[in-house]
Amino acid sequence: MPTITFITAGGKEHAVTAEIGRSVMEIALEKSIPGVVAECNGSAACATCHCYFDPAYSEAIGPIGEHESDMLDFTASPRRPESRLSCQVRVTDTLDGMTVCIPAMQ
Amino acid sequence: MAHAVPVVSDIAFSDLLADPYPIYKRLRDLASAVYLDAARLTLVTRFDDIMTIERDSETFASSNPGSLVNKVMGHTMMRKDGEAHAMERRAIEVSFRPGTIKSHWAAQFEAISDRLISDIESQGEADLFDALAAPMASLALIELLGLKDVSWQTLARWSQALMDGAGNYSGDPEISTRATDAAAGVDAAIDAVLAWHRQNPNPAVLSSMVNAENPMNPEQIRANIKVIIGGGLNEPRDSILSLTLGLLSNPSQLAEVMASRDLWPLAFEEAVRWISPIGMYPRRVTRDAELSGVQLRAGDQIGLCVGAANRDDRRFENPDSFDLLRPKQPHLAFGAGPHFCAGAWVARQMVGRIVVPMLFSRLKNLRLRPDEPARIHGWVFRGPVSLPVAWDV
Questions:
Q1: Distance from the A95 Cα atom to the nearest Cα atom in chain B, whole angstroms
Q2: Contacts of B180 (CB under 8 A, 6+ apart)
Q3: What is the mean pLDDT of residues B342-358?
């Protein structure tokens, strides 16, 4: 299983093994990583699972959907080029070693 | 060893309607789930317990064979789970996207709000329930759905009749007849415009329904339009009033938000936390489950009191006060999980960015009337039912 490292806004690192096929948001909740709220539980309706993804993996993650991009305009912490909704990113083998930074506010 | 659900029987239904918050506090401190005789329902009132439930739709289902909502409105997505729910929800999502709201709906909401405020501007006083909040919410919903030739009063009447019918547990025949009549009125209004929407794709909900990748069939359209009418009118109406009331009751916070426009979104979120327009919604327990030390049984009907969770003092400091500068953290006014309010971004834009800011900038020295205090009512649905105000002309 690939390993993903979450880094909280306070700088604490949590390296976890992630089950392939789940969303990064689901992994964060399952491993009780603080700062990923996910109010809508993956419906891409709330923008509270916003994270900053390692730009080196942007191709492996895949492109941003139109709806997801709309939602990212309304995140509580600033949108950056590496912003994604973690509920829309599926875990694959190619994400092994990726870091995911959690913003200060959701 | 989990305990059985405790029972509380010394509370009158009228107390719940008048002010549910002291009752909620008592229930929160008693147990994770409490059967309240007055409501004839097991109520869940703590923030964390509701979050737990909303993350597990297999144990806590929205589908409900005996649901009155289904009887009155048809089989709506609100009472479906899993893929059946997700597919219908995807069909309407495009109408509610933040991008669609910005590019299309915002200008329409602004025009409606401008017209309604212009109508009362020279009067110097009004009850904002009838003068602004109710017509605003109704006219916006008519546009959003894509209905034509329906007055705001008619849509408001349909909405109330459908909701009353969905809550008609005593089987009152008069309420039942009014709900059936309203349902027939909605069906006719849909029939009048559906072909047009099919031929002229546009951002309205009816257009999204017929032109989606997986279009809804006529039965799904009728049921889901009814649930949006029942559930999409009083929430923006009530949050316009709660936000206005919260600010008028707290002059220093009003001054802050008037000085910095960026605070409006926080003010809106605080208003719906403070008085959540939907205070309770139901779920059905599908298998025996323990909830924070209380044993729930398969078949139990439970009510998730988000109005109580949003005042949970385990989570919010001074939960009963309106404080738009409190540390920002999620609330449950829009629910949680797969059924998270589809209209959340519409409400945020309409109420928090357009109507209430426009109200305060246009009506000078807007103030409450000490001789006629605001009245707030309800628990399943709660909000100001009267908000008399005055301003300088």
A1: 25
A2: B72, B165
A3: 96
- The alpha-carbon gap from A91 to the nearest alpha carbon of chain B, in Å, equals 20
Residue identified by tokens 């000078």 is B364
Which two three-digit tokens encode residue A18?
A: 């992630």
Residue of B101 and B329 predicted with greater confidence: B101
Tell me what ipTM this predicted complex has.
0.81
CA distance B92 to B97: 9
CA atoms of B257 and B269, how far apart (whole Å): 13
> What is the share, in percent, of chain B residues with pLDDT greater than 90?
91
B-side interface with A, Cβ within 8 Å? 54-55, 86, 89, 93-94, 97-100, 328, 330, 334, 336-338, 340-342, 344-345, 348
| CA B55 from centre of chain | 20
Give the global pTM: 0.93
SS3 per residue for B227-289: HHHHHHCHHHHHHHHHHHHHHHCCHHHHHHHHHCHHHHHHHHHHHHHHCCCECCEEEEECCCE
- How long, in residues, is chain B? 393
Measured distance CA(A63)–CA(B293) in Å, rounded: 44
CA-nearest of B272, B360, B332, B363 to B45 is B332
Domain spanning A3-101: which CATH class is it, in words? Answer: alpha beta
Write down the H helix ranges in chain B: 13-18, 21-30, 47-54, 68-73, 82-96, 98-100, 106-120, 128, 134-145, 152-166, 173-199, 205-211, 218-232, 234-248, 251-259, 264-274, 306-309, 344-347, 356-362
Kind and range of the H or E run holding A15 = strand A13-17
Closest CA to B279 of B382, B143, B158, B148: B382
Q: Are B197 and B210 in contact (CB under 8 A)?
A: yes
Classify strands B125-127 and B383-386 as parallel, antiparallel or unpaired: unpaired
Q: Which residue of A has its CA nearest to B56?
A: A41
Closest among B154, B92, B199 to A45, alpha carbons compared: B92
Nearest to A99 by CA among A42, A61, A73: A61
